[in-house]
Amino acid sequence: MTVLVTGGAGCSGGHAAHRLVELGEEVVVFDNLSTNGAELVPAGARLIEGDLRDHSALEALFRSEAIDTVMHFAASISVPESIANPELYYDNNVVGTLNLARHAGPAGVSRLVFSSTAAVYGECDGAPVREDCPLNPISPYGVSKAFCERILLDIANRRDMGLVALRYFNVAGVNPAYGVGPSAVD
Fold first, then answer.
1. What is the spatial distance between Cα 67 and Cα 17, in angstroms, rounded to a whole number?
2. Nearest alpha carbon to residue 29 among 131, 103, 83, 19
3. Catalytic one among 89, 90, 121, 141?
4. Does the active-site annotation cover 141?
5. Whether 152 contacts 93, CB under 8 Å
């Protein structure tokens, strides 16, 4: 079977795609290339350029590939930008995720890994932030990711699909061998 990595030309998705290829997995990267170029997609992965908000592109993707697992990294990710332009975040993050889930479930995807964020917690009392802290996002970015988690949980439960949401803080680091990450491409 095949692993679909949305946003696989980005930093986090690119690292995941490279590692999956190293592990011998069949990898398809689906990316609109809005923030990075095709050169960041690992050799050995198939790149399909497309946008998650485009139903016809998703229909073609799931019709042409036998995808078992989705790793969903595609998203707009800047907190300040989300405050200045919340519509962009709800459209790109929420609508894109909803469309992906609409197509992945009927296509037989059995597992989905969602790249969420610790921004879903907002300002949690105490440190460290614990997974069971209440969700109380304070930016449109955090709200969009919390909406996406809820959408995916509801659809995964209905479709009997395994779901993991990774709520991490700022991602940092680079693997020069992959050519992915801020200092690798500067």
1. 14
2. 19
3. 141
4. yes
5. no
